[in-house]
Amino acid sequence: MNRVVFLNRFCWPEEPATAQLLTDLTEALAAGGRRVRVLASHPGTAGLPARETHQGVELCRVRSPRAGGRGKVAKAFNWAAFALAALWRVACDTRRGDIMVLLTDPPLLAVVAAPLARARGARVVHWVQDIYPELPMALGARGLGWLRAPRDRAWRRADACVTPGGDMAVFVCTRGASATKIHVIPNWAPSGVAPADGAQTAAQRRAWGVEDKLVVAYSGNLGRVHDLEPVIGLAAALQADRDFVFLFIGDGAQRPRLEELARTLALPNVRFLPAVPRAGLAAGLAAADVHLVTLRAGCAQLVLPSKLAGAAASGRPVLFIGPPDCEPARMVTGAALGAAFDRAATAAMADTLRAWRDAPGDRATLGRAARAFATREAGLAGAVARWRELLATLDQPPGEGACRPAGGPAPLAPPR
């Protein structure tokens, strides 16, 4: 088996979503006998080595400056600084026969990293978690359209493209990538996330001071792709009902604006909490009675919120807010693990939450369906099996065996 090298800005022990996915996948691959390497950024933590082996995975952390703050300038600086350092390592360390898996943090790094890897004799896989430049363009950015052509070329020339959902796979296919090279491998809940026992859940609820409330939680990154203003509107609609509390658990670009909006409306039922470390994530997710998942209109084919898998794995109902025909909405309604609403349906959402409050048995039924969905459709074991199948096809030299789509071919329906 050839060595597999993953390139992403974050890795263990950092805990952004892509780092957690990498930790689970690479450790499972290493446990199965693969030689696995991760090339990522060094966070600057004192005592953290630039190179180490953790749970069988070789970690190489390149040093690059990190600017603080949530702004676009700081983010762009951090992306560029890591990209320059990482490209040097790709050029120097890639070996013939390597399978280079390129994630999308920083965005579009694969456009320049892939040719370097191929020049060194590696096979190239694009693991597409977010679709750029269309995603920032959908959020209002201008002048990025010229980046589509080199991105499309990178997808076409790749040995494989992996997406977490079918809608994203359709988009990649419509941009010229061969359907036989597109693999739909759903993201999974972080390893260890499951319905926590009653004592852990009660302790977390006490720590948050919400023992007597029906907790509606948004847990995760408060990034621009998530449609969160309707959540404030929903909290406002239910503010007279003292049974409900809305928790925003995490950080991100939208948090300051949401906090200001909640203050302006003087909402007594909205609280903002720091992100829960991975070690306490199972209890943190289970402490909610209902989980919120949201997506902005125009982003349906460009990203699939990974928090849906974690929410489902906790065994709690999901209330989705976003385009009614997008993939997350279809997942929620198709698996009967919650309800999905357009952002404007505030009254209907409020009625649903009241109904769930008044019928704990119905909430329990939805929670069991959520857990079943997480095990069946968004489980780590199934994802690892599909990755192993894909990597096995890439162990063969180019031209010695077609690359079969893992988990079935991409659904080649017209994009919405």
Structural write-up:
This protein has 416 residues and is an alpha/beta fold. It has two domains: 4-188 and 379-394, Rossmann fold, CATH 3.40.50; 198-376, Rossmann fold (3-Layer(aba) Sandwich). It contains 15 helices and 14 strands. The strands form two sheets. The chain has an eight-stranded mixed sheet with strand order 3-4-2-1-5-6-7-8, sandwiched between helices. A six-stranded parallel sheet has the order 11-10-9-12-13-14, sandwiched between helices. Helix 1 links the parallel strand 1 and strand 2. Helix 8 packs across helix 13 (346-358). The chain is globular. The two termini are 40 Å apart.
Concise description?
By secondary structure, the protein is an alpha/beta fold. The chain contains 15 helices and 14 strands.
Radius of gyration: 21 Å
**Class based on secondary structure composition and strand pairing:** alpha/beta
Unreliable segments of 5+ consecutive residues: 400-416
Alpha carbon gap, first and last residue: 40 Å
Sheet bearing the most strands, described? 8 strands, mixed
Order of helices and strands: EHEEEHEHEHHEHEHEHEHEHEHEHEHHH
> Which CATH C-level class of the largest domain is it?
Alpha Beta
Global shape: globular
Number of strands: 14
Instruction: Provide the β-strand percentage band.
Output: 15-25%
Task: Kindly report the average pLDDT value.
Answer: 92
What is the count of structural domains?
2
> For this structure, what is the CATH homologous superfamily of the largest domain?
Glycogen Phosphorylase B
Helix tally equals 15
CATH topology name of the largest domain: Rossmann fold
Q: Spatial order of the strands in the main sheet?
A: 3-4-2-1-5-6-7-8
What is the second-level CATH architecture of the largest domain? 3-Layer(aba) Sandwich
What's the helical proportion of residues? 40-55%
